[in-house]
Amino acid sequence: MGATTIYVTAIVALIFNVLYLQGATGATFVIQNHCSYTVWAAGIPVGGGQALGQGQSWSVGVPAGTSSGRFWGRTECSFDGSGNGRCSTGDCGGVLSCQLSGQPPATLVEYTLNGGNGNNQDFYDLSVIDGFNVPLSLTPSDGSCQALTCNMDKCPDAYLTPPEPKSHACPSGANYNIILCP
Prior knowledge:
The protein is 10% helix and 40% strand. By secondary structure, the protein is mainly β.
């Protein structure tokens, strides 16, 4: 294979990647704690974890190319200086910065960015399939997209059990506010 062939192959690959990723956008999730107690917010595959006292917020940028993930709150946590510890609910392997999903019970926000098979849509839902631990709401920045709420153990907007998911769509590029204890 000559240098010209390698050069042309590299240019074709670059053009394909630009066209394929065109329109793929990331999102920002702002998690706000309105609870009267500290909640340790968590997210995978990006985010990790963050302690949020009442009134505090945490902004997590999810880059384009991240297909799907989830956020949840953890309660009654205790961590040492190196980030090791435990939470009563939503624990993710005994660490502050989660690399694993939380253990039940955990109220979940789930998302898939740019998952509309080329039509540039994000999909999102609330889920109590892993149980309920913290009331929350999810509000997309695009006013035409549906806001969702899960208060107490009554979650009419939440995905409860298969086969009836309650997934909602929003144009890609929206940002999302997650309120703990709305």
